[in-house]
Amino acid sequence: MNEVNILYVAMFGLMGMAVFLFLGFGTALKQSAQDATVRRKKQRSFKPQGKLNKLYQSLRQRQHAVIEQSSLPGSLYLALTICCAIGGFFTGRVVFSSLFLSVIVGILALLIPMIVLSFRQSKSKSKRINHLASSMMILSNSYLVTEDFITTVKDNLAVLEYPEPFRDFLTYATMMDSDVRSALRRMENKVSNPYFSQWIDALVLAQDDRSLRYVAVSVVDSMHDVLQAQEESDAAMYAVWREYLITLALIFSVPLVFKLLMRDAYVTMTTSLVGQGLMVLLLLAVVISVFKAIKINRPLMM
Asked: CA distances (Å), 183 to each of 87, 147, 149, 200, 268, in order?
């Protein structure tokens, strides 16, 4: 088998691995694909935009949302993006030794800050939800004894893991409006969580019927059941991410192996039109699979 045939076999293997990475999450995304199909049917009466324009607008919207949620200055985000693009370009020069492929890698590296911030925000939101659930449990159990929610918050504020909304509630209820119902509704608007809203509903009803305060405990129990399912999902996803990253390392080590051991095949792979086209498809498949993985691993209550 000559070097050209070896090149074709290797490229076929690389593309096969890329397809596996991209389609490996297909089952989990089946429902999402069905929803997308329904949305497309509803939008047939409108003039469709080009696919590239849709992709660009989607990325821009996601980028703006990530920057706003991270409270990161726009100038710092821009600097990180430029650094990643430069680093991606030089990494492409080392791995591929091709100006065209190096530029492609540099362009794709522009997405690195957005991907990293998306991961961090997802973990931060998951952690905040856990702290909220813990605080709700402490207050619910204490409320069963005190039967006065203001007293409950006063007695437990120092031990709450997520005290901000409850501190604001206490300030409003003691200094501005003594109506506990309106203070609870005001606090509900500050926390975007469906279980928290149900919990507030139970507390509002308990102001008229004290026996309903047990409903607040049942709401928190349901919330903890969902969080337990999230922890099991996270444990499974960690194993998937480990295999995913190992596969990526194997994929990008192949060009370096060719560069060291089969120089002629490496030159053909990085300079020929077919080879460069396949490598571009490989890089795009990797980036798309990363976004799909982030979407799958989103916390259940987000």
From this structure: 51, 16, 11, 10, 70
